[in-house]
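In this supplementary section we document a worked example of the pipeline. Step one takes a protein sequence of length 266 as its only input; no multiple sequence alignment statistics are reported here. Step two produces a three-dimensional model, which step three serialises into structure tokens for compact storage. The input and output of this example are shown verbatim.
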Amino acid sequence: MKRFAISRKTLGIPYLLWLIVFVAAPLLVIVFYAFTNGQGLFSLRNLSGFFTDPNTLGTLGYSIVIAVISTLVCLLIAYPTAYFLAHSKIKSKAVIIFIFVVPMWINFSLRISALKEVLTLIEGNLAMYPFLNAIIGMTYDFLPFMILPIYNTLINLDQSYVEAARDLGANSAMAFFKVTLPLSLPGIISGVSMVFLPAMTNYVVLDMLYNSTYIMGSLIGSYFSAYNWHGGSMISLILLAIIFVFTLATGKQGDTNDQMKGGAIL
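The serialised model returned by step three reads:
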């Protein structure tokens, strides 16, 4: 009796079909609309319009500022938290990690609605502090995505590097800045990628916190709502290019840090 065997290539066919239908085909539609005009003819007007329209450039700049500040705030909170959890000997460490993970299981809209009520009690009129509320909302939403990668890196860090640094005369501060921090960069880069990129486009946080300002996600939505598929597609394509460059840069930085793991720098 012959055994029924399925090759790996055969098992990959459903995944390939999924990529073609739900990834490649929509992307081709976006490219088509981005580089055509209303008559379906090739045009670079949408591309030039992006770099000459102060509204789109201002929105891009504002989105980058929001993303950078939100990422820095998350990093400043997440790294000490992850470091403490990785090096503490408390028995309830797993419970604390679980507390950070639980909000990720709760509906996004419910979490932001709860935050809105808290901010309303503190500030009164949320419209008075739109930028501050945007940073608070982004930090609240993405903080777990910064803590977990850094924690996983620190918990798996070979402590013999730190012990060797101390044996060579380094104090605790020197051992941290010369050994622990450089070797934890892969976790930092992973966390930054998981916070910075969504923070540029997550306009739902701003909308739910009564923020009238635009970021890239809301700008794209406004173009498509106005049935300007050509302009919206070009903005989407440019944003995709920015994300690709950022991901490529952080990926190369991560490879460099992996090569440095062969020894500590003193």
